[in-house]
Amino acid sequence: MLITLEGIEGSGKSTQMKRIAAHLKSQGRRCVLTREPGDTAIGKKIRAILLDPENGALTSLSELFLYAADRAQHLGERVIPSLAAGDIVVSDRFFDATTAYQGYARGLDLGVIEKIHDMVLKGLRPDLTLLLDLPPERGLRRALSAIEAGDRTVSESRFEQEALVFHEKVRQGYLALAAGEPDRFVVIDATASVDEVTDEILATIDARLTRK
Ligand code: TMP
């Protein structure tokens, strides 16, 4: 089973990832936590290029191909072998992030993005995608405080430095994707408390595991 978490910066995905892992392990299930970009050794190098605020010269198209390269590596090295071994794979971001960020927010052609996804994913789709939704003003405030607190480095802040309007487009992109695939997506109100968000996520995952 492949579960993905999506949302704008500061939506609380990392905290929830740890809680999901603890919950699944307490049920005796094998689970693998992973993320995009940067889960593999090669992906870490790609991540450093993508998130470095000094790389303002990166064109939207090179950005798209770098995310696709990271994803191809991630799938080949981690996701597909783990699914084949019967593990539950939980990924902090996956291909919907490219549609939301490079498609809806950067304005790249959604048809081109879909073709790249056909090539990279070969039909693989998450069984469940949890979209942690909140207004970008709130998410960015949280994300910037994480940088100030030293929980995230400035060298990874290229997207945090984008204007609010960019993040609003990302949010609307995600919501459009969720509306188009209501069976795969569950939209979670990420303005609720961390514990309430966890409760909703775990109840959703448990319900899906029972249904499978
Ligand atoms: P994160 O690891 O903190 O979520 O940072 C990853 C950043 O990369 C985040 O700003 C979203 C962005 N991103 C894209 O623009 N496209 C993608 O396909 C992915 C996976 C992430």
Describe it for me?
This protein has 212 residues and is an alpha/beta fold. The chain has a single domain (2-211), classed as P-loop containing nucleotide triphosphate hydrolases (Rossmann fold), CATH 3.40.50.300. Helix content is 57%, strand content 13%. The protein contains eight helices and five strands. It has a five-stranded parallel sheet, with helices on both faces. The radius of gyration is 16 Å and the shape is globular. The chain starts with a strand and ends with a helix. The relative contact order is 0.20.
Give the secondary structure arrangement, pairings included.
Elements lengths: L1 E6 L5 H14 L4 E5 L5 H11 L8 H25 L3 E5 L2 H11 L4 H12 L6 E6 L2 H13 L15 H17 L4 E5 L4 H18 L1
Parallel strand pairs: 1-3, 1-4, 2-3, 4-5
Helix pairs in contact: 1-8, 2-3, 3-5, 4-5, 4-7
Bound molecules: thymidine-5'-phosphate.
Descriptors for this entry?
212 residues; alpha/beta; Rossmann fold; 8 helices; 5 strands; 13% strand; binds thymidine-5'-phosphate
Bound molecules: thymidine-5'-phosphate
CATH fold category name: Rossmann fold
Encode the helix/strand succession as letters: EHEHHEHHEHHEH
The total tally of domains equals: 1
What's the short story on this structure?
The protein is α/β, with parallel strands linked by helices and 212 residues long.
